[in-house]
Specification:
two-stranded antiparallel ribbon; elongated; alpha+beta; 2 domains; four-stranded antiparallel beta sheet; Chitinase A, domain 3; isomerase; 274 residues; peptidyl-prolyl cis-trans isomerase activity; PPIase_dom_sf; rotamase; EC 5.2.1.8
Length: 274
């Protein structure tokens, strides 16, 4: 079980994001147990006839080792981290070769899964049509004046007066919305002309959401109030709700369904291992 340290290292990083040495006693025990189970499963995989057909080329092993080394600023820190996790470079190379061989076996097994046809994908599409519906989205900008009774100029009455003044300017020159947002808005979006991007219903504060989804494209709202303060909102564009056509999503759907079949093929094969 020389490669067990590598599996413990992987498990510790996946579940806790830190080296084994930094784990609590209980965490170390749980990591060890999971690593042992993984090692035992890999032993079964590598004892199968399929494993005999899988050979790991030295170049693939070297590439995997180089990828790991490149995550460190220098060779010294790489070796120090290996030592902290109970490994050395020789042990790591053995573990990587084993991992690559296990992956090759699982890839070979997955390739036995029947191919998903376009007809299969289209049947799935119509049976699950709700998954392919896209809600209406709206592109919006806003200008925010915050309410802060501890800050001069931002008392409620002052803030309202400022937003009303901005709203009056917009009524006369709506094309200046982005310029006025940059000049007056107290939201970080001011640097982008007040852009909120594309949003769907429910993403904004209710006070803004209800208004935005009742506006026409290009329309500017009256003064609105949210927990952040006072706003003026502009709906710049509208994308109606739609159902993605099959031809548009066909290739991604074929790939997704094929991946699912391959995972099921692997799981079924693994369950059959003695």
């Amino acid at each position: 079980m020389q490669t067990l340290a590598y599996l413990e290292f992987q498990t510790a990083q996946a579940h806790h994001g830190k080296p084994v040495a930094q784990l609590s006693t209980a965490e170390k025990q749980a990591v060890h147990q999971e690593a042992v189970r993984q090692w035992q499963l890999e032993e079964k995989i590598l004892a199968t006839p399929e494993a005999l057909a899988c050979i790991v080329e030295p170049a693939s092993q070297d590439d995997a080792l180089t990828t790991l080394r490149n995550r460190y600023p220098d060779r010294g820190s790489f070796l120090a981290d290996l030592a902290a996790n109970g490994m050395n470079e020789t042990l790591l190379k053995e573990a990587l070769a084993r991992e690559l061989r296990v992956d090759a076996v699982l890839t070979l097994v997955a390739a036995r899964a029947p191919r998903v046809s376009e007809q299969d994908a289209e049947i799935f599409y119509w049976q699950h049509i709700e998954r392919f519906k896209v809600p209406e989205t709206r592109e919006a900008r806003h200008i925010l004046v915050t309410i802060n009774d501890t800050l001069a100029g931002n008392h409620r009455d002052e803030a309202r007066a400022r937003i009303e003044s901005i709203a009056a300017q917009l009524a006369a020159q709506p094309e200046r919305f982005a310029d006025l947002a940059l000049q007056y808005s107290e939201c970080p979006t001011a640097l982008q002309g007040g852009e909120l991007g594309w949003v769907k219903e429910g993403q904004l504060y209710p006070e803004l959401d209800t208004t935005l989804f009742g506006m026409a494209a290009g329309q500017i709202s009256a003064t609105l109030e949210s927990p952040l303060g006072f706003h003026v909102l502009q709906c710049t564009d509208i994308r109606p709700a739609e159902t993605k056509p099959f031809d548009e999503i066909k290739q991604k759907l074929l790939a997704s369904l094929q991946e699912q079949r391959e995972r099921r093929q692997q799981k079924s094969w693994l369950r059959g291992l003695s």
